[in-house]
Amino acid sequence: MGKLDGKVALVTSGTRGIGLQSVKTLAENGAIVYIGARRLDAAKEICNELAKSNYKAKAVYFDATKEETYKTMVEEVVNDAGKIDILVNNYGGTDARKDSNLVDGDQETFFETLNNNVKSVYIPCKIAVPYMEKNGGGSIVNISSIGSILPDLSRIGYCVSKAAVNSLTENIAVQYARSNIRCNAILPGLIATDAALQNMSQEFIDVFLKHVPLKRFGQPKDIAEAVLFLASDDSSFITGEILSVAGGYGEPSPMYGDDVSK
Q1: Set 158, 176, 249, 256: catalytic member
Q2: CA distances, 261 to each of 38, 112, 213, 244, 256 (Å)
Q3: How do residues 55-85 score in pLDDT, each as one tens digit?
């Protein structure tokens, strides 16, 4: 028996990194998982691999640049499965080359990042919540970022957009708790995805890890396990929470990284 037997889940941008691991973890725990993806061939390949272990997953089309697909994605899941129990809004991003600080950052990129990252949570939730209400409840898990609560020297658009996702999470939680719909957000720290590791020097890695009490990068599985917890009945009395999964990054005094006693 899995924690999610009989549940129907949708994970956006589920073909790589955190999204992919979340798909696998939810499927391994009994859910039928729909992978919202632009690259349907990649999503179908993942579904075929999971099927070899008798796990169930299906691909649905989702393109973050095409607003209409936010609605059609959710509706395709409901039309096919008859319901939606779990929504994991994993999509989010920015153009790191242009999303810098206030003065040097590109203004168009700032507003485009804000629009896309908030829209990718707002619209799927707006479409999914009425279906969840009809079904007697559900769980929404939004993937935010530790940068939403800890200001950075760059990526101002990304950080502000994820702070907005946190507020949106809290508002949805309060507004639909009476319908037994829970909504929580996860704030990943620096996660060792291929994309992240390819853009970091060893010098940066060494300095960064000095400020992580658990002394390691997070793995996609660390985030996926948190997704599973919030999606399942293990967290049935938790809603509106903004959960950091960052190895303690940002918790200690700023002097922590300079502590030579360790």
Answers
A1: 158
A2: 49, 45, 14, 27, 10
A3: 999 999 999 989 999 999 999 999 999 999 9
> Would residue 131 show up in a list of annotated catalytic residues for this protein?
no
Within the chain, strands assigned E span: 8-12, 32-37, 57-61, 86-89, 138-143, 181-188, 242-245
pTM, 2 dp: 0.95
Domains of the chain, each with CATH number or no CATH: 8-192+219-247 (3.40.50.720)
Q: State both tokens at 59.
A: 């691909």
Q: Can you tell me the distance from the alpha carbon of 31 to that of 86, in angstroms, rounded to the nearest whole number?
A: 9
Per the listing, tokens 């903004």 go with 242
**Rounded CA gap, 118 and 89, in Å?**
10
**Residues 161-196, buried b or exposed e (16+ Cβ, 10 A)?**
bbbbbbebbbebbeebeebebbbbbbbbbbbbbeee
Length in residues, the chain: 262
CA dihedral sign of residues 150, 152, 158, 164? positive
189-201 tens-digit pLDDT: 999 887 777 767 7
